[in-house]
Amino acid sequence: MRAFDYIPAKTVDEAVALLAEKGDQAKPLSGGTDLIVMVREGRRQLDLMVDVKDIPETNVLSYSQETGLHLGAAVPCYQIYADDEISAAYPGLADAAKIIGGTAIQGRASVGGNLCNASPAADTIPPLIVLEAVCVIAGPNGTRDVPAEQFCTGPGQTVLENGEFLVSFKIPAPKNNSSSYYLRFIPRNEMDIAVVGAGASVVLDTEKTSFVSARIGLAAVAPTPLFAEEASASLAGREVSDEAVNAAAEAARHIARPISDMRGTIEQRVHLVEVLTRRALNGAIHRVKES
Amino acid sequence: MSEKKEYKVIGTRPIRHDGVDKVTGRALYGADFQTTGLLHGKVLRSRHAHARIKSIDTSRAEAHPDVKAVVTAADLPTAADKIADLGESAVNLKYLCDNILASDKALYTGHAVAALAASDPHTAEEALELIDVEYEVLPPVLEVREAMEDDAPLLHENLKTDAMGEKSEESSNVASHFQHKKGDIDTGFAEADVVIEHDFVTGTVHQGYIEPHNATALYNPDGQLTIWCSTQGAFAVRQQVSEILQIPVSKVKVVPMEIGGGFGGKISVYLEPVAALLSKKSGRPVKVLMNRAEVFEATGPTPASYIRVKMGVTNDGRITAAEGYLAFEAGAYPGSPVGAGAMCIFSPYNIPNGLIDGYDVVVNKPKSNAYRAPGATNAEFAAETVVDEICEKLGMDPLEFRILNGAEEGVSRIDGPVFPRIGCIEATEAAKEHPHYEAPLEGENRGRGVASGFWFNVGLKSSVAINVNPDGTISLVEGSTDIGGTRASIAMQAAEVLGIPAESVYPTVVDTNSVGYTDVTGGSRTAFATGYAAYEAAQDVKQQMTERAAKLWEVDAAEVQFADGDFVCVNGKDERMSFKELAARLDEVGGPVTGRASVDPTGVGGAFATHIVDVEVDPDTGKVEILRYTATQDAGKAVHPSYVEGQMQGGVTQGIGWALNEEYIYDKDGRMSNASFLDYRMPTCLDLPMIDTVIVEVPNPGHPYGVRGVGEVPIVPPPAAIANAIYRAIGVRMKELPMSPGRILKTMGKL
Amino acid sequence: MPKKVHVQTTINGETVEFLCEPRQSLLEVLRDELGMTGAKEGCNNGNCGACSVILDGRLVNSCIVLGVETEGKTVETVEGLAEPGKLHPIQEIFLEDAALQCGICTPGFIVATKALLDKNPNPTEYEVRYWLAGNLCRCTGYDKIVRAVLDSAQIMSSEVGA
C-alpha cells in the first residue's frame, strides 16, 4: 500500500475543495470498509483520503411521514435498522443494511459508501432503486440530484465528476398500502457477497388485491445494479396473484446479463434472478398484507 | 469388556492452564513477538502458475535506502537430493528448498521467488516492486486427471513415476503409484449379489487456521540461529531449517510461540528459512508475516482428488469385495496424502477381498499438505456414499449394515495392518441408539444421512521433564505445541499418576534447547504420546519420591508404596505422607527431584466415528441448511471431555465447510480467484446448529489410561453424511465436493 | 519515510497519544506502535473478526479503521476487560465452558460478545449467532462459544439483578 494523506473535512465545501484539487488521486472516506481494503490490496492508489463522516450533512438521519427519509451518505448501516420507524417505513432498505458484512462492518459501512463503491452486487442499491431514492451530490458547482438507478455507470464507476461527492439521499415517504423487500442469494448465511440480489417495492390498492405499481431492482446480474423497468411496469393494475408475480419474475430474468465468476455462473444467476424476484415481490406483498 | 477404571483427574474438566492468557489477550502468538532492531520481511511471489524463471534482478531493491537485505534461491546452499524425516510426511529436500524460494521454475501462483527486509512492513511491501523477475510463461496443468495424461505439461522434467518400487523410463507428473491387495478381488465380486460403482471428485481445500504463518529469525554472528514462530512442531522446524540451510541442528534453536491453529498446515516451513537468510544478510532480527491471500496461495491446502469406488455385497448385506482408485493432486511437488487416504478408505469395514490403487500426481497448485486426517475425508466421502447406495438397494438400515460389517479386533485392513481392540462397532451402535436417529424429521426437502469414518492415528516420539516444587506442585516441561488444550490433557495424565490436582501441574511448552526431541502436534498423537511421556515422567518422579520417603523413614524403598496420593510405609511402621508433604521435605533427603521420559509408543489406537445429520435443501436455490448434527466417536478414554467434544465439534464443522462450500476456485491461467475469507467461505456460526457429541470409550490397550487420538477422525464423515442426507431430501446423489448450491441445482437438472 | 500524524485517543479508559502514518490501521497502531497485541490479524480485510475492538461504543474490525480516524474517540480492547485480580465474567465463562481451542480468535469473540451484551443483555441463540457471524473460529465449531455467550448473558444479568 502506497502512503497517502488523510484530512478530516468539517464542511461540504472543504471536502469539495480538497477532492477537486486532487482529482482522481483523492477519495472521500466514510466507513472505509471497502475503500481501505481496496487501497491496501493495491486495487486503487490514492494520494489523499478525505474523511467526510464528520460533516453534518453526511450524518443526517431524519424521517417524517410527510417528507420521507433524509439519509446522510455516511450514516452507518446499523443506525438504519436500529431505528424502528425507519425500518417500518423502508423495510427493504433495512433488509439490506442488516446483511452487509457482519456486525462489525455494519458499525462502519454506510449506504452511501455501498452506492459509491458501485459494485454490481451491492446490497443497498436495489432497495434504493425500488424506493425511488434520489442521491444528493455536492460539487464545485453546487449540488445536484441523481436518481439512484442512474448513479452507477459500470463496475466501480459512477456519475460523480471531479470534486463531487455523495452527501445524502432523499427517499420519498412510503405510499399507503406499500412495502418493500430485499433479499440476496449467498451460499452461507452471512458474510458473503450476493450471487444475485433482488429488491421489490409494491403499492397495492386499498383492498390489497391489486397492484397500483411496483418496482424491481436487481444486483449482480449486470455491470451495474438494474432497475427492471418492464418487469415492474407489468404489474401495475394487475391482480395480486402467483401468475402476475411469476410473469414479472420471468420478465426480470430476461434483462439479466450476468457473468460467470467465482461466486456463480451465468446459468445459476439467470435462474436465481427469477427465484429471487418472485420471493422479493411476495415478501413485499406479504408485508403490505400484514400491515 | 474390561472393567472401567476409576480416575481422580482423568475424565474431569479443569480450566486449561493457558486459559487466562488466552482470554485476556496476553498469550503471545508468533506475530506478537517483538525484539529490538526488528526488520520486516516480505516475499515476492509468482503471479504465474507455471513459468521458467529466466532471471531475477534485485539491484534496484538493494539500492533502496530502507531495504536492508534481499534474498533469492541463489542464497540457499545447494541442496542435496535426500529425504528428510519429517514425521508424518517425507519430503524431498530439493523440492523442499525450491518451495521456499523457487530456483528454476515457478510452479504455482503464489510461489515464493524472492524476499527482502526493510525497516517497516509497508516499505518492504512497496520495495518488492523493485525486484525484476523475467519469466518464460508455460501452460499450467491444474487438475489431476489432466495432469496424468501423456501430453500434459510437465512440472518436473526429471520426475519419473515410482510404480510399486520401479522407476518409469519416461518423465511424468505421476510421482508414484502404489497398490494394496487383500484376498482375491475377482472372487469377491463374483460372490456379490449387488455391485455399485461410482466416480467422485473433491476440490482443493485449505486448513483455514485463523492465524497466518509467521516467523522471526535472528542469525547471530557466531552462527547461532534462533527462530520464533507458530508451528505444530518446533523440532520439525529445526530439522527442516537445518536441512535447507545446511547447518547442524545444534545451531538452530526454535522457540515455539502460541499457535493459532494448524490442522496439519503448520508442519512444513515456508517463512522460517527466508527470515533466517534475511537476518543473516542484514545482521538484524527479521520478522516475516503472511497475509491471508498468501496463506491461501502459498501454503499447503489439502488436495483435490479423483476417486473411483466399487463395492460388492450379498443380498443378506455382507461386503464381499471393495475396490478403490485414488488419484490425488500433490500440488507442485510430490507428496500428497494419498497413502493415508488408501489406508482409511474402507477401514470401518471387515472386507475379505480388496484392491486399492493410489496415485500421487503433481499439478500447478501449492504443494499439498496434511489437513486433519489427511486423505481420509476425500476417500471416505466416496466409499461412504457408495455404502449408502448399497444400503438403499438392499433395503437395509445404514447403521445396521455398518454394525454387521464393522471392523473389529483381529480384522485386517486391505493395506495390511490387523486391528487391535477398536471401537468401530461401539461408535456406530452409539449413533444408532441416539435419540436423533429415530427422531421424526418432518417437512419437505429434508433428509437424514449417516456416515462413518476412520483415522489410524500416530504415535511417534515425545519427551517430558517434571520438576517437583517444594509446595507440592510440579512444573512440567514439554515440547508439544498446544493447539487445542493439550497442556491440560498432558498435565492431567501426570497429575493422575501423582495423585495431585490438575491445577498443581504447571505445564510449559519450551524451545528445542530445553526439552528432549518431540515430534509434531499432529496425527492425533499429542494427548496419546506426549501424554504417555508425561505418564512415564510422573512414574519416574513417583519412583524417586518413593525412594526419598524410604530414606526419610529409614526403611527399604521396597517397603514404601504409593496409594491414593499418599506414600505409605508397609513394613508395620505407621508412616504416611502425601505427595505435597513429601515435596516440602525433599531437601532433607537429597534435594530436588526431576523426572523425565522420552517415549516412542507403538500401541496406537485407531479412531472411529459415526455421524448423523439432518439437512434441508432449498430446491430453488440448491442451498443446504444443516438442521441437526450428532457425532459419536470412540475416544478410548477422554482425558478432558470438554476438549474432546471440542475436537469433535470443530472437526464436524470443518467437514461441513468442505462438504458444502469450501474450494479453491482457479481462473484459466491458474490464479486462485477466491484467496480470501470472504470468498473461500468457511462456515460462520450462523451456518450451524449446536453439534451434539457422544464420546464412546473403548480403552486403547496401548496406553496406560486407554487414550486414543481424537482430533482428526471427526472431519471424515461429514461430507458423506451430508451427501447421503441430501439424497434423502431431494433424491439426487452428489458425487462432487463441495456440494455448493450451483452444483446441486445442476445435478437436479435445474440449470 | 512518510510523514507521521499525531493522534490522541482514549484506549481502555486511558488517554493515549501516538504517531502513525495515515495508511496504518488501528490494528497496526495497537499492535506495532502501542504493543497491545491482544487484537489479532487474521485476514486484514474485515472478514474474520480476530481484530475486533469497540470504537465509540460500536463493534468494529480494527483492521479497516485507520489509526488517524481515532482522534478524539474511545477504543475498548480485550486488554481492558479484566479488572485487577479478576477476569471479566465473559472471560471466566469462556474458560469454564472450554469455548476456545487455539485461542487466536478468542480476543475477538470476547470483545464482540461484550459489545453484544452491552446492547442486548439477553440475546437468543439466533441473535448470538447473527451478531457473531463476522467472527470466524476454525477450531471449535462455535458450539461452546455460543453456549458461553448465552451463559455469560445469564450470569451477568443475574449478577446485575442480585
Assembly state (oligomeric): heterotrimer
What proportion of the residues of chain A form beta strands (DSSP E)?
25-35%
Order of strands in the sheet with most strands of chain B: 3-7-1-17-14-15-16
The CATH class assignment of the largest domain in chain B is: Alpha Beta
End-to-end Cα distance of chain B: 54 Å
Instruction: Tell me roughly what share of residues is in helical segments of chain A.
Output: 25-40%
The main β sheet of chain A shows up as: 5 strands, antiparallel
Spell out the blueprint of helices and strands.
The complex is a heterotrimer of chains A (291), B (751) and C (162).
Chain A: E1 5-8, H1 12-22, E2 26-29, H2 35-40, E3 48-51, E4 61-64, E5 68-72, H3 77-81, H4 84-89, H5 91-99, H6 103-106, H7 111-117, H8 125-130, E6 134-139, E7 142-147, E8 152-154, E9 157-158, E10 165-171, E11 178-185, E12 196-204, E13 211-219, E14 226-227, H9 229-233, H10 242-255, H11 266-290
Parallel strand pairs in A: 1-3, 2-3
Antiparallel strand pairs in A: 4-5, 5-10, 6-7, 6-10, 8-9, 11-12, 12-13, 13-14
Chain B: H1 19-23, E1 39-45, E2 51-57, H2 59-63, E3 67-72, E4 83-86, E5 89-92, H3 93-100, E6 105-106, E7 112-118, H4 121-127, E8 132-137, H5 144-148, E9 160-163, E10 166-171, E11 174-182, H6 185-190, E12 194-202, E13 205-206, E14 214-219, E15 225-229, H7 234-245, E16 252-256, H8 272-282, E17 286-289, H9 292-298, E18 301-302, E19 305-313, E20 319-331, H10 338-344, E21 353-362, H11 376-394, H12 398-404, H13 424-433, H14 435-438, E22 446-455, E23 462-468, E24 474-478, H15 486-498, E25 505-509, H16 526-553, E26 560-563, E27 566-569, E28 576-578, H17 579-584, E29 594-599, E30 607-617, E31 624-634, H18 641-660, H19 677-680, E32 691-696, H20 718-730, H21 741-747
Parallel strand pairs in B: 1-17, 9-11, 15-16, 20-21, 24-25, 31-32
Antiparallel strand pairs in B: 1-7, 2-6, 2-8, 3-7, 4-5, 9-10, 11-21, 12-19, 13-18, 14-15, 14-17, 19-20, 22-30, 23-24, 23-29, 26-27, 27-28, 30-31
Helix pairs in contact in B: 10-11, 11-20, 12-13, 15-16, 18-20
Chain C: E1 5-11, E2 14-20, H1 26-33, E3 52-55, E4 58-61, E5 74-76, H2 89-96, H3 106-119, H4 125-131, H5 143-161
Parallel strand pairs in C: 1-5
Antiparallel strand pairs in C: 1-2, 3-4, 3-5
Helix pairs in contact in C: 2-5
